[in-house]
Amino acid sequence: MITSKLSNKFRTTIPRPIRAALELHPGDEIEYEIGDTGRVVMTHAKSADEPPASPTEQEIPAAPWDDFFSAEGTDLGQSHADERHKG
């Protein structure tokens, strides 16, 4: 059995064999699950170098130019072409 000691701030160092078994690195997230018997299971939840989860569509604000491009009759490609043929 591997043990570690809690500090006065309830912190502990995860012992090296546990870090190796779970492939843990600084910044990684750990997930704890408490069973009915009081046993705690610790698993490697997410690596620090994993990209964050994609934001949902509701979290992405509309860009200020979205309204401009979606305005009826706005065709920037055509107006640019017209400018080239004027000369």
Q: Could you walk me through the main structural features you see in this protein, from its secondary elements to its overall organization?
A:
- The structure is a single chain.
- The protein has 87 residues and is an alpha+beta fold.
- It has two domains: 16-46, no CATH class; 57-86, no CATH class.
- 26% of the residues lie in helices and 15% in strands.
- Strands 1-2 form a two-stranded antiparallel ribbon.
- The mean pLDDT is 74.
Summarize the structure.
This protein has helices spanning 16-22, 66-70, 76-86, and strands spanning 29-34, 40-46.
SSE succession: HEEHH
Residue stretches low in confidence (pLDDT < 50, at least 5 long) are none
User: In which order are the strands of the major sheet placed?
Assistant: 1-2
The main β sheet shows up as:
2 strands, antiparallel
Share of helix, binned: 25-40%
Indicate the multimeric state.
single chain
DSSP helical segment count? 3
Structural class category: alpha+beta
Question: How many discrete structural domains?
Answer: 2
The total of beta strands comes to: 2
Radius of gyration: 27 Å
The average pLDDT value, as a whole number, equals 74
Q: Which strand-content bin applies to the residues? A: 5-15%
Shape: globular
Q: End-to-end span in angstroms?
A: 84 Å
